[in-house]
Amino acid sequence: MSNRTKLSAAAATALALFSLPALANEPSLSPFAAQLGASYTDRSTEWTIGSNFGSDTMAAEAALLYRLDQNLNLQIDYAYHEHDFDDGYTFDIWHVGGGIFSRDADFMVGLTGQVGKAGSESGSFAKHFLIGPIMEAYQDNITFGARANYSHLEYDGNHAMKTVAGSLYAKLYASSNLALTLTGDYADGEIESTNWTTYGGSAEAEYAYGSASVFLRAQYFKSESDSSEMDDTQAVVGLRLYLNSDDTSIMSLHRSTTINNTNELMENTSFPG
């Protein structure tokens, strides 16, 4: 073996030895992440052809994320909402859903869906499915997002509601612990022969401490049909717990763990008939 060959082999060996500790200490992303959440909603509704009413909603949500590779993610989730109205009427709705999406440091795009069912003490029930795309773009400490969906809901056995909806949102990470979100929503639907539209939005502040956070959200939705109008005003307070995550900032939590798959228009809003 020549001296030049010996020097080359020695250099390669030294480089490999110096590289091993660095590779061993490089953080690895866990294949799983999860989120648990609970919230309380106080709601006031004004209806032009009926009496005004109020309601309270208790909600619980859970989501599990599996990272198929560095960018591709698979999620399953569950949500339960219990609506209690001032007159004693109760209405429950739940969904099982999920999504598949690709996410890197600059962008996220995916497809989400869900199936669900609702019921009341009177025995009436509804069932629905929903599907649609979601995307996000990351620019420094701001996230811009958009989503759309088609939903089909059947209720009381022989009635159907078809809806096309969309939303735009922006998240500002004011600090490592605080996220401020503005969302605008629009939906267009048909109940039998009645057409209706809903539009509105929300403002949310979420403050995280470690892997737990508390959030406050104000929501307003206006629904209009050919014969009536409804105005929904809501105040929401809740908790979120991010599991199996080593992220130290709320921005990192939002951009590396589960995505929100609850449809506020479907699960927390009235529609005029």
The CATH architecture can be given as Beta Barrel
**Strand-residue proportion:** over 45%
Query: What is the CATH top level name?
Result: Mainly Beta
Oligomer: single chain
Q: Report the C-alpha radius of gyration, rounded.
A: 24 Å
Low-confidence parts: 2-27
Write down the CATH topology: Lipocalin
Bulk shape: globular
Order of helices and strands: HEEEEEEEEEEEEHH
CATH superfamily: Autotransporter beta-domain
- Total helical elements: 3
Largest sheet: 12 strands, antiparallel, barrel
Distance between the termini: 89 Å
| DSSP strand count | 12
What is the domain total for the residues? 1
Structural class: mainly beta
> Average pLDDT across residues?
84
The helicity comes to 10-25%
Q: Order of strands across the biggest sheet?
A: 1-2-3-4-5-6-7-8-9-10-11-12
Describe the structure.
The structure is a single chain. The protein is mainly β and 273 residues long. The protein has one domain: Beta Barrel (Lipocalin), CATH 2.40.128.130. It is built from three helices and twelve strands, in the order H-E-E-E-E-E-E-E-E-E-E-E-E-H-H. The chain has a twelve-stranded antiparallel β-barrel with strand order 1-2-3-4-5-6-7-8-9-10-11-12. Strand 11 and strand 12 form a beta hairpin. The longest helix is centred in the first third of the chain and has 23 residues. The protein is globular, with a radius of gyration of 24 Å. The N terminus is likely disordered.
